[in-house]
């Protein structure tokens, strides 16, 4: 009986601490900019990628600095796999929104199917988003690979 009494409060506390709190509407709008950027990447849509990032965006990937053109080349132009499919899921950790700038930290998990093989990757990412002409756009994205399988 004692174990049961201690078990339920522990589960409640863990669940409460791990649950994502819903963001404010401003935070959600900024977060959706990131989701849409990755949707464009998943759909191999260079116009969409450009729509959700600044012209001088920088991606810090695998110890290198990539421009939007680099990302388009590596992820879209060179990715000719007919069976390519990428599904992304986000766990937003923290979002701060100012008038013209926002900072977002999240975990990203992507399931990627390509050339008949499936891989899963998890990253911890931090993004700086800026407001350009009343639209939020990704300005900097720093990515740390956590696990790949």
Outline the secondary-structure elements.
Blueprint: H1 2-18, H2 25-42, H3 46-51, E1 53-61, E2 64-66, H4 68-77, E3 85-97, E4 101-114, E5 117-132, E6 135-148
Parallel strand pairs: 1-6
Antiparallel strand pairs: 1-2, 3-4, 4-5, 5-6
Provide the descriptors you would attach to this structure in a database record.
Nuclear Transport Factor 2, Chain: A; about 150 residues; alpha+beta; single chain; 6 strands
Describe the protein in words.
The structure is a single chain. The chain has 149 residues and is of the alpha+beta class. The protein has one domain: Nuclear Transport Factor 2, Chain: A, CATH 3.10.450. It is 34% helix and 46% strand. It is built from 4 helices and 6 strands, in the order αααββαββββ. It has helices spanning 2-18, 25-42, 46-51, 68-77, and strands at 53-61, 64-66, 85-97, 101-114, 117-132, 135-148. A 6-stranded mixed beta sheet has the order 2-1-6-5-4-3. The radius of gyration is 18 Å and the shape is globular.
**Cα gyration radius (Å):** 18 Å
Using DSSP, what is the number of strands? 6
Helix percent reads 25-40%
Number of domains: 1
CATH architecture: Roll
Short description:
The protein is an alpha+beta fold and 149 residues long. The protein has helices spanning 2-18, 25-42, 46-51, 68-77; strands at residues 53-61, 64-66, 85-97, 101-114, 117-132, 135-148.
